């Protein structure tokens, strides 16, 4: 056993060693308490950040560093610093012992972020990139307040081998910006705006659960709509190159209850676009219509439901009396001023009898596909109607309504989706009988969905569907007999 001997030859005993150790430990505890009392925590963090930055962030001569901050005096807000913060939030791992966590009003779920002094190592195309969040402090209180107000107190420094400089500038930063946009879409809380005349606006969160997986539509039609939307999103440069506004128009037509509103909700959820519902019936003039359409944001779906209810968009070339009578279309002269024979002395006539249009079709067309349409981009226009045939052809041509989607009565494929949604079943003995009945009668998805909701038991619910379809077949046969009798007379 080794023995401790001092220069004087004194060999301390075990009790002396224990006493020395206790005194030393007490002194250390006293010094620690004094340090905590005299040195503020913020000063400690500041010193540690500086030491870490000086000793652990040194780069070799072959490395290059970029700074991303928001201290550009003569420019707008630096979008790259926000994109970098969001991009790095997905790169935080278990090696980061300190992590910022927040919940923001316009986003779903939690968001994580770097703490000043923490590093993250990212890899892009085989290139190692080291990120460091640095907190820059001012010398005085006034300088600190100024930096906090401008949001310039933190900045990112990324370090990499200098030979990869061009790849970082051209490809890596574009990758960060694209990832940022996709992440914003995923966390975005959609909004539904309702806009009427005289600037009236209402806004609510849009939480409609409809998706392309849940709506009862023909699978081929569904796939074509999704493909068209995705193609639209990817063609920004194409629209700019050919000189067209980056927009797309869809006309949804068909009988009530065929899922037009659900399809709009599915489109919004797929694109992560807000919805602007325009109430044309409240518009009093062309100026109001123009202001209403111009007051919609980019990356949105602009919806006009039941557009056939607005006489201003009816077929101007329809001259057939039967057509006008069937759809109650007034003559052109009735839309403006009555004739002298109808009113007598014009001076004494009552101007309240005159029917003055609320807005003109030309203004609506100009806002959709004319000069006013360039005031926004990446927008989707969706019109719905129960009577496509009465709409003016000028409204329906490509460039305004690019894709016409017929929302038909329920098909066998559509019913399978409804059964899966409401009853959570894929197969059932009654499906074959239901398929045969659906092929010979007209029934809307809404009517079938209502019947499926009557019971949670698949047997009972499907038996109700069979009874509904049989009743509709009887009504169809009865109408055919009555029609045949009328023709005989």
UniProtKB/TrEMBL annotation:
A Pfam cross-reference name: AAA_lid_At3g28540
Keywords: Hydrolase, Magnesium
UniProt xrefs under SMART domains: AAA
InterPro entries the record matches: AAA+_ATPase (IPR003593), AAA_N_dom (IPR025753), At3g28540-like_C (IPR058017), ATPase_AAA_core (IPR003959), Mitochondrial_chaperone_BCS1 (IPR050747), P-loop_NTPase (IPR027417)
Family matches, as SUPFAM superfamilies: P-loop containing nucleoside triphosphate hydrolases
Named cofactor requirement(s): Mg(2+)
One GO term (biological process): response to stress
Domain AAA+ ATPase: 246-411
Molecular function in Gene Ontology: ATP binding; ATP hydrolysis activity
Catalysed reactions, as listed in the record: ATP + H2O = ADP + phosphate + H(+)
Family: Belongs to the AAA ATPase family. BCS1 subfamily.
Name of this protein: AAA+ ATPase domain-containing protein
Organism: Erythroxylum novogranatense
High-level lineage: Eukaryota, Viridiplantae, Streptophyta, Embryophyta, Tracheophyta
């Amino acid at each position: 056993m080794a023995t401790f001997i001092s220069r004087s030859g004194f060999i301390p005993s075990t009790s002396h060693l224990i006493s020395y150790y206790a005194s030393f430990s007490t002194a250390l505890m006293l010094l620690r308490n004094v340090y905590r009392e005299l040195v503020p925590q913020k000063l400690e963090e500041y010193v540690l950040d500086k030491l870490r930055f000086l000793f652990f962030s040194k780069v070799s001569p072959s490395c290059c560093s970029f700074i991303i901050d928001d201290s550009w005096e003569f420019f707008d807000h630096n979008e790259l610093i926000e994109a970098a913060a969001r991009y790095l939030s997905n790169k935080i791992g278990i090696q980061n012992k300190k992590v910022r966590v927040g919940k923001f009003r316009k986003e779903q779920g939690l968001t994580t972020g770097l703490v000043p002094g923490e590093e993250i190592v990212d890899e892009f195309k085989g290139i190692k990139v080291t990120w460091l969040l640095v907190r820059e402090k001012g010398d005085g209180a006034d300088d600190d307040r100024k930096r906090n107000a401008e949001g310039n107190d933190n900045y990112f420094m990324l370090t990499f081998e200098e030979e990869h400089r061009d790849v970082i500038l051209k490809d890596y930063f574009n990758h960060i910006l694209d990832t940022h946009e996709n992440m914003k879409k995923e966390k975005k809380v959609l909004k539904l705006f309702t806009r009427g005349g005289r600037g009236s606006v209402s806004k609510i969160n849009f939480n409609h659960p409809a998706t392309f997986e849940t709506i009862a539509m023909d699978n081929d039609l569904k796939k074509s709509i999704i493909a068209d939307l995705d193609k639209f999103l990817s063609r920004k440069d194409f629209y700019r190159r050919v000189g067209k506004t980056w927009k797309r128009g869809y006309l949804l037509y068909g009988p009530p209850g065929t899922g037009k509103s659900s399809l709009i909700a599915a489109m919004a959820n797929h694109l992560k676009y807000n919805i602007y519902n325009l109430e044309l019936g409240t518009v009093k003039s062309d100026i109001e219509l123009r202001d209403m359409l111009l007051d919609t944001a980019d990356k949105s779906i602009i919806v006009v439901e039941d557009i056939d209810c607005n006489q201003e968009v009816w077929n101007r070339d329809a001259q057939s009396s039967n057509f006008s009578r069937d759809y109650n279309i007034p003559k052109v002269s009735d839309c403006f001023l009555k004739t002298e024979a109808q009113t007598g002395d014009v001076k004494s006539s009552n101007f309240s009898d005159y029917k003055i249009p609320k807005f003109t079709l030309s203004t609506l067309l100009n806002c959709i596909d004319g000069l006013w349409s360039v005031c926004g981009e990446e927008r989707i226009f969706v019109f719905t109607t129960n009577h496509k045939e009465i709409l003016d052809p000028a409204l329906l041509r490509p460039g305004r309504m690019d894709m016409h989607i017929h929302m038909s009565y329920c098909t066998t494929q559509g019913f399978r989706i409804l059964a899966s949604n409401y009853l959570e079943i894929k197969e059932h003995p009654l499906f074959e009988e239901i398929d045969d009945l659906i092929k010979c009668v007209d029934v809307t998805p809404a009517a079938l969905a209502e019947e499926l909701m009557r019971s949670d038991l698949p047997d009972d619910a499907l038996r109700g569907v069979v009874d509904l379809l049989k009743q509709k077949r009887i009504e169809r046969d009865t109408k055919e007999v009555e029609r045949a009798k009328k023709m005989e007379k």
